[in-house]
Amino acid sequence: AQSVTQPDIHITVSEGASLELRCNYSYGATPYLFWYVQSPGQGLQLLLKYFSGDTLVQGIKGFEAEFKRSQSSFNLRKPSVHWSDAAEYFCAVGDRSDMRFGAGTRLTVKP
Amino acid sequence: EPEVTQTPSHQVTQMGQEVILRCVPISNHLYFYWYRQILGQKVEFLVSFYNNEISEKSEIFDDQFSVERPDGSNFTLKIRSTKLEDSAMYFCASRYTETGELFFGEGSRLTVL
Question: Are B24 and B4 in contact (CB under 8 A)?
Answer without folding.
Answer: yes
